[in-house]
Amino acid sequence: MTKKKVGILGASGYTGSDAVRLLARHPNAEITALTANTHAGKTMSEVFPHFFMLDLPKLVEWEKVDWTRLDAVFCGLPHGTTQEIIAAVLKANPAIKILDMSADFRLRNQDSYAQWYGHEHRALELQGEAVYGLTELYREQITAARLVACPGCYPTAVLLALVPLAKAKLIDVDDIIIDAKSGVTGAGRGLKQNTLFSEVGEGLSPYSIGSHRHSAEIEQEIGAAAGSAVTVNFTPHLIPMARGEFCTSYVKLNGATPDDLRAELEKAYANEPFVYVTKKGVLPQTQNVRGSNYVQIGVVADRIKNRAIVLSTLDNLVKGSAGQAIQNMNLMFGLPETTGLEQIALFP
After folding, report:
1. Using CA of residue 170, residue 176, residue 177, residue 183, what is the dihedral sign?
2. Annotation marks residue 150 as catalytic
3. pTM over 0.90
């Protein structure tokens, strides 16, 4: 197969750079455009020295890219700026495949988007077209899509753990508590006081309590699985490590047992290449998936009667972002889904 020419919008961010890292060794992809308006004119290795061995195009402003020459583009720009840029890219090349790693097309309801992101959606004609890019749940739709809205890292970990259980009616979707923790890369590469080493090191910090925007994605997808509106209790925390994510979900059982939950998850993911359900008594750990596109899910009986604890972990920059985007790109181009993504976790 001829290599697909791909570009990355926002290549100077963490998600953009991880897309470069993975695509650089993808056998069916050729990186032909990299944008980063604040670093325009620089080489990628000037911004990320660990790319010293790669022959990559220089960073340019996004307006200077000839989008008609590309087959696909990955978007790692912040929410709010993405909508109009993607609309312009698609206007220039209606056949291009878009893998959006921002939050701008994840929510299907325009009122919900305005509520959570503070402004009206600026590309409503595309919002309705976008497919939610959680690969294991929307594989068929992704395969036929032009615009895929890749999920947030927290929703990916939570939804893979809970959607099969909600769909099978094994848990009470009106009583879900999610305790989530993410590495500092989840906060982006911009300079912020709360992510300085001396501020974040040797500590654990909650943030956006009761108001984190990923709640909307989680509620949208669990609600779709359950067939009813859902509200979850979701609290994220910042942990002092670069990458990784761990979500602990506390659920009430609908006449099921923790073993029933595990069996349902094993059935749901029996043929999935990247999702693994641990055996009884084996607990997921972030170090088991670091740097990889794999997800670990476990189930533990709560000592409180009629409750269980569902554990899920992934790398927030890989399966939680760039890796899942590449998994979706593979589907969109008819490639084996695992192409370029079978790296084993970095341990220790």
Report:
1. positive
2. no
3. yes
